[in-house]
Specification:
By secondary structure, the protein is α+β, with helices and mostly antiparallel strands. It has four helices and 14 strands. The longest helix has 16 residues. The radius of gyration is 27 Å and the shape is elongated. 26% of the residues are buried.
Length: 206
């Protein structure tokens, strides 16, 4: 029996032939002549990979400590990943190197992506570019409400929330944060993520 290896030249009864990428099966006539059956063109076309983009929500140093061996520091990175059409993920990572923290946070965000059911406001039917109903997200002592609005009104929220919601494909909504302090950007990002994540699970409140 002749064993064929991908991309290598094989011999059989003094004949040389190549096992190419576009060949799936090899048949033989009655007298042992090789018969190649090429793969249909439709099978060679691979499924296009989904295009996503990422945004660094915030990076900051947790602490800097000086000891005998030098300066010891830890950095935290919060990164969001989305496809601008109903898919969003959020990740956070702590590392001594800022670049490594961003890279690891991006990997965690890609693993935590969820699909958001988008809809349109009843007053302006058309393209689905807002949430289907009012959503509530909670993280720590911060509570955020996402309220759907009519098409063309835009996103009424902080700059960080606008970046996050646009990554998710949401173009029209109002965001109302409720907390004693609103300068904690990571908490706001995770509250938004918890709101849309619970919507995917069929619950509008965390």
């Amino acid at each position: 029996m002749v064993k064929l290896q991908l991309g290598k030249v094989s011999t059989m009864d003094g004949l040389r032939f190549r096992w190419d990428l576009d060949i799936t099966r090899v048949g033989f006539h009655e007298y042992g002549e090789p018969v190649f059956q090429p793969t249909p063109h439709s099978m060679l076309q691979s499924t296009p990979k989904e295009v996503t983009r990422s945004e660094v929500i915030k990076t900051y140093s947790l602490y800097n400590e000086n000891n005998r061996s030098g300066t010891r520091s830890r950095h935290r990175a919060v990164v969001a990943v989305g496809n601008d059409s109903g898919k969003i993920g959020l990740g956070s990572k702590i590392h001594r190197d800022r670049k490594v923290a961003i890279q690891k946070a991006r990997e965690l965000a890609e693993q935590s992506q969820v699909n958001i059911p988008l809809g349109c406001h009843p007053s302006t039917p058309g393209e689905n570019q807002t949430v289907q109903r009012e959503l509530t997200g909670l993280h720590g002592d911060l509570t955020i409400r996402i309220v759907p609005t009519a098409r063309g009104t835009g996103i009424n929220a902080s700059p960080m929330a606008i970046v996050f919601l646009k990554l998710a494909g949401i173009k029209d909504c109002d965001v109302f944060p409720e907390a004693s302090r609103l300068d904690n950007t990571p908490s706001m990002a995770f509250a938004l993520y918890n709101a849309v994540r619970c919507e995917c699970q069929g619950d509008g409140q965390t």
